[in-house]
Amino acid sequence: MPYEPYMKELIKKVETTRSARIQAAKEGKHFPRLSEADGMKLMKEFHPDYKEGTKRQLAVGPSQGKVVPNELADILEAKSSLNSGTVDLSRIDYDVDVLVIGGGGAGSAAALVAQEHGARVLIATKLRHGDANTMMAEGGIQAADKPNDSPPIHFLDAIGGGHFSNDPQLVKTLTHDAPSVIQWLEHLGVMFDKDPDGTMRTLHGGGTARKRMHSAGDMTGAEIMRTLRDEVRNRTDIQVIEFAPALELLTDHEGRCAGAILFNFETEKYTVARAKTTILATGGLGRLHIQGFPTTNHYGATADGLVLAYRAGASLCFLEATQFHPTGVIFPEQNIGLLITEKVRGAGAQLLNADGEQFVYPLETRDVESSAIIRECTVRNKGIRTPTGRFGVWLDSPMIEVLKGPGTVARDFPAKYRQFARHGIDISKEPMLIYPTLHYQNGGITINSQAETEVPNLYAAGEVAGGIHGINRLMGNSLLDITVFGRIGGKSAAEKAKQAQPGEITLQHVQKFHEELKNAGVGDGRISPILLPDYVGKIG
Amino acid sequence: MSNDVVPIYIMGKKYHVPATLTILKAMEYSGYKFIRGCGCRGGMCGACATVYRLEDSYKIVPALACQTVVEPNMSLTQIPFFPANKSIYDVEELEPGTQTLLQMYPEIARCVCCNSCTKICPQELDVMDYVQAALRGDIEKAAKLSFECIMCGLCASRCPGEIVQYHVGLLARRLYAKYLTPKAKHVADRVAETEQGKFDPELEELCRMDKPTLEKRYAQRDIEAQ
Fold first, then answer.
1. Quick check: B120 and B153 in contact, CB under 8 A?
2. What is the pTM of this model?
């Protein structure tokens, strides 16, 4: 769907202001960055997290009283989708040292390291191995490995980006281990963007003080994911079962995690996977469509891991904050919600309103940037209306061609260039129309720097875990998080499995949770995990 | 945007769907709940490989269901899975020689240059060219030409030589990145420093810092020029 004539008319306003904006950018003059206080003020007025009536306190469970979005509360305060009467716990189908639930970036990294530490590893994943938000991460991975940078500078960026809410110990681990993770990936054969002498080509992301965004085109996550998956497949002693979501964790008489019940999506049969230690790496919640927002997330991002861990006794943190990515596609309609990497702004593209004017510094943190876009499209009435009545602002990608040379857009953003070209829009010549889209679950299961949850023998890594990013994650810290904490989780779980002696496997914790629900009078008629979003019969 | 409805044929069965929908959304609209055949929904993961024909053409058209808008009277099927063997290797043990790709995937010698793979690629990659580069031992070219591969498997489904092109491309990329481009010296240097604990005292100090001091440090950061 190319731009309609009235939209092309509006694009002329962007073109009118472009040369002056480029000139100013070349002279280092930018739209002023907001102070921390002004950013917070803007967010309180416009960020979806602060909208009244969209969240509630949890009525039951280890984080009772904590506030989470209604859509998440609905599946946390719900009964098990497992029909426990049909599961025979005396028949063990898989008996392993380490069970990894989830086959994305965190799960794959965890499996590799657990295997290296001598564990017999089973990966069970809901869809295909590699079906994960990791595959869709475009822009990059942060690590402070340039001479003008350091892990402490990275630490400050990450904790400031999270508005000082992050668990500092987790930020320390994240930033300290980042260079080693880049080296690990480099040695595995991830095709990072490099200069001829091997120097990594790095860019800024929103909220970074140094250019530390490492990339592989605009397919950084895909490149990492396919490499990790290939490496797992080369280690044939790691078992992988696809289309086998976990429906519940198993616990022993002392409440320690002892594996999971898996569900064969195609035969609809249950299997019992007993494990000395278990790593949850199930990803995030984008497909819950918080407040009805479209999402950048993978089809499988339905917060299953939060549900399972919560019933088993793990507390949750920072789930009151949801990340909206400032630049989601708002036109063409077919691509609504899809991610346009922050790397586009890192390369110099600016955000512009219907008058072709800037209204925000392009690399504010994501929450502040999103708030400014929402303000522009609401109270200021300076958004661009789409043919279906949505509103967005321009992301001026053509200016990258002037700043960095002709051909840069197609070379550095091949996936995005192709995605728009399919709909008759050449983003090296015409700007993109964008609006914030539901992107990331900032919080998650509480972990420590060994990736341990509060449930003995249960670990969590990747988007399902919380605390690393506090209430707001910076770009490039998620691919980093999944590899850093995936690796740590793999090591911790493998080491623990050497001594762990779980008792008889039970579903006691599920029964107990059902009683709590009953006593609180909530959860009737709802079951979870939901496993997949329901789009049947809808115009999505 | 129009409210037109168009007829499409999903595995031969006729459905009427809004003309603006992608194939994926049109299938959901028609009542399909995907387990296979749907992944990232953003054109990056290769789960939703699809082929279709239009009524007035003999041609087979490749598509990603999540990226392709329906056309009137298209007759489509998804190919959510196609068997493929992968070579097992230890990338640490391999050498990036001109014969390596051929040794790991001898069937690339069966390429007859029919170009079926290139024609079916929904990413519009020069698949045959990278297979030929692999055959010649040009790892760099095979890596670069295959970089945007999403491993949907359509190439392998069409190949008369029974080659699994996307696995060849993946190995080429790993070899190229690991052995044929210089390692980043600044990364190795920084790893050595972190392992020696160079930054630990400063990180510990930051962990202990109260919020007002942290806020001040954050506000005073000097920011590297664009």
1. no
2. 0.95
